[in-house]
Amino acid sequence: MKKTADVDHPIRNLLAVRWSPYVFSEQPVPAADLRSLFEAARWAPSSYNEQPWRFIVGRRGQGDTHGRILECLAEPNRKWAYKAPVLVLGTVVREFVSNGNPNKAAEHDLGLAVGSLLVEATARGLRVHQMIGLDPDAARRAFSIPMNAEALTAIAIGYADKTGGDDPALAERDATPRERRPISEFVFGDRFGESAGL
Ligand SMILES: Cc1cc2nc3c(=O)[nH]c(=O)nc-3n(C[C@H](O)[C@H](O)[C@H](O)COP(=O)(O)O)c2cc1C
């Protein structure tokens, strides 16, 4: 399975080997690893140090939170995410706690926190697959999410099933090499759309 990034320029191995599996093994994630993942998220930078991220964590086989998160997912995501031993809802608080003003950076900063979580997870041999395909209203009802907050993403965490599992279509997705546009297409110089020529 060739998932390591085929890089044009050298990067840290930790970044190159991260990828988002569809076929998770059912091996549980130790609680100590989970704590470290959220510790990594905790120390992410955020606008005004507001830390607008809030996470709801469900562990397969422990209570019903995992199942209730699963029910909030879009059907195509449910088909593979049910196996992940940990499902998380990534939520944002859209207002500053101190004054109720809108926080324009809330989604950005949730992404940063999850970015740190991803790096920590990869270092521990864990894999993470994020999902925008969820019903935020269902999540609001299921978890009493207040109106100034919103479930933005779901996050599956666990170990990739190297056997490929029992769904050939999912196994094929996991066997497909990862692709990216070259930096000349998104790093601009004189004007938007014109490569910086780095
Ligand atoms: C914010 C976000 C939302 C995503 N939503 C979904 C999703 O709903 N369903 C899905 O199968 N993959 C989803 N993905 C995974 C992306 O498709 C995946 O990261 C991308 O194809 C690159 O693959 P890689 O992570 O293996 O490099 C999402 C990723 C991110 C960062």
Gyration radius over CA = 18 Å
Classify the secondary structure makeup into a structural class.
alpha+beta
Characterize the main sheet: 4 strands, antiparallel
CATH hierarchy, class of the domain at 30-158: Alpha Beta
- As a percent range, the share of helical residues equals 25-40%
What fraction of the residues are assigned to beta strands by DSSP?
Answer: 15-25%
- Catalogue the unreliable spans: none
Protein described:
With 198 residues, the protein is an alpha+beta fold. It has a domain at 30-158: 3-Layer(aba) Sandwich (NADH Oxidase). The chain has 7 helices and 4 strands. A 4-stranded antiparallel β-sheet has the order 1-2-4-3, sandwiched between helices. Helix 2 packs across helix 5 (106-123) and helix 3 (65-72) packs antiparallel against helix 6 (136-143). It is globular, with a radius of gyration of 18 Å. The site of flavin mononucleotide (FMN) has 10 residues, from strand 3.
